[in-house]
Amino acid sequence: MNRIVGTGRYLPERVLASDEVAARAGVTAAWIVRRTGIRERRIAADGEGSAAMGTAAARRALEASGLAAEEVGLILVATSTPDHLTPPTACEIQAAVGAFGAACYDIEAGFAGWIYALITADALLQAGVARSALVVGVEKLSTVTDWSDPATAPLFGDGAGAVVLRDDGDGLGVRSTSWWADGRLAGALLRPAGGALRPFDERVLEERTHLLRMEGTRLFRQAVRTMAGQARTALERARVRLEQVELVVPHQANLRIIEAVAAELGVSPERMVVNIDRYGNTGAATIPIALDEALSGGTWGTVLLVSFGAGATAGAAVLC
Description:
Elements: E1 3-10, E2 14-17, H1 18-25, H2 29-36, E3 40-43, H3 50-65, E4 74-78, H4 89-97, E5 103-107, H5 113-126, E6 132-140, E7 158-166, E8 172-181, E9 189-190, H6 202-207, E10 213-214, H7 216-238, E11 247-250, H8 255-265, H9 276-279, H10 286-296, E12 303-309, E13 313-319
Parallel strand pairs: 4-5, 4-6, 11-12
Antiparallel strand pairs: 1-7, 1-8, 2-3, 6-7, 8-13, 9-10, 12-13
Helix pairs in contact: 1-2, 3-4, 7-8
């Protein structure tokens, strides 16, 4: 069983409180907290990109693992906000940490991207392609947020999280996984322009169509049902009962979604990891950030990870 032998996170220094966001979006801070549970989020500094944040989290995960960078055989980076469309962010992180023996590529699977990356890394290690992997989730969502849009402006923040996965050692093992996608929901959360179909130009800038657009009502119930379903599938594959799970680490999309997933599963609130009030929704980075926080605060026997993102995509993993 492949094991998580080190974790790390990075959050930018700048704190953006909900009252400041509210003033720009034409709402109140109380409205934001009531609808999302978010009181503040972190915003990357000028010139601080996804590669830099991912590198900081990766270095901390490597340090915690005791693994030398040159021993890493694979680097996977989940992000929707790369610094460049090419090269892969994973290659930039490889160069920064000195893991020159590693194969590198990015995974774009919405905010469920890190779960997808973990599943992929676990499968490749099982296949013997590598013995260790660095799995990073990073987002600089502040650069694609329309701060005048009350539907999305309050939600997003910046940050990075990482784990080192190895085919031996001490740590939580990847007991089972599950993943899911439904492309019929692709239009519910997207950046309409700025890609190959509608390249960035003056009109795109004027229309602000390079920024995120979301149909929150359309996604809410789907997110709750799907996350609960993926959690049950992963638990069934692991032959683990829900009552045996000590900690649930959900994607930090919205506090109401987290609470609804807990209710759907019948999980008590104290078993749910929640940090969205401090960091907002950091996309593909939410789960590795929250996992690192949880593991830094104690030792856990069985942990359930579950996520949902644009695409629509979702996934879950049981660690024990």
